[in-house]
């Protein structure tokens, strides 16, 4: 007990308490550090790099991915433009007109078919039926007009194709 009453003994007890508190603080700090390292391994894996290097690597990968996606989008835009141009040349307007070319009441066996693209250019194919013969005519159409004069039925087929209708003169007679 004498040693606790002396200043040296009192200092020793205080030093022991401070050492014990420091030891507890070190154990808590080590526990938190261990937990932080475990969390860091979950984020950046088992490598020895720090979180800053990992963030920089993620940014580089993000920029590379962004550039790759821009490249893909540009190529897709070009392909869509090519496909649209090709589709503009495809048959998108058509109409059929059936009629009796010689007024023989033969059941409207003559036919004119207009096949036009998006620019309203294409062909009109006509099949003129007579009792003993059939004649075929093909006429070119540019921008909705025949390059040579069209018959009224052929023009009606072109007009119907442009309007998007399927016509049959047999119904209108």
Describe this structure in words.
The protein has 5 helices and 5 strands. It is α+β, with helices and mostly antiparallel strands. The chain has 3 domains: 1-47; 49-88; 93-172, no CATH class. It has a 5-stranded antiparallel beta sheet with strand order 1-2-3-4-5, covered by helices on one side.
Spatial gap, N to C terminus: 133 Å
Number of helices: 5
Please outline the major beta sheet: 5 strands, antiparallel
What fraction of residues sit in β-strands? 15-25%
Classify the secondary structure makeup into a structural class: alpha+beta
* pLDDT averaged over residues: 83
Strand order of the largest sheet: 1-2-3-4-5
Count of DSSP strands: 5
**Overall geometry:** rod-shaped
Helix percentage range: 55-70%
Low-confidence stretches: 166-173
Give short descriptive properties of this protein.
single chain, 173 residues, alpha+beta, five-stranded antiparallel beta sheet, 5 strands, 55% helix
Compact overview of the structure:
This protein is 55% helix and 19% strand.
């Amino acid at each position: 007990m004498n040693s606790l009453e002396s200043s040296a003994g009192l200092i020793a007890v205080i030093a022991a308490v401070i050492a014990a508190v420091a030891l507890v603080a070190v154990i808590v700090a080590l526990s938190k550090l261990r937990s932080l390292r475990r969390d860091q391994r979950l984020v950046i894996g088992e490598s020895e790099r720090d979180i800053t290097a990992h963030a920089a690597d993620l940014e580089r990968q993000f920029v590379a991915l962004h550039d790759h996606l821009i490249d893909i989008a540009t190529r897709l835009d070009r392909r869509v433009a090519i496909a649209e141009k090709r589709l503009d040349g495809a048959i998108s307007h058509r109409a059929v007109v059936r009629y009796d070319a010689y007024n023989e009441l033969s059941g409207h066996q003559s036919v004119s078919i207009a096949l036009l693209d998006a620019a309203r250019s294409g062909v009109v194919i006509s099949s003129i039926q007579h009792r003993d013969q059939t004649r075929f005519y093909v006429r070119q159409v540019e921008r909705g007009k025949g390059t040579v004069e069209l018959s009224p039925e052929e023009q009606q087929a072109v007009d119907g194709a442009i309007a998007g209708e399927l016509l049959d003169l047999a119904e209108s007679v």
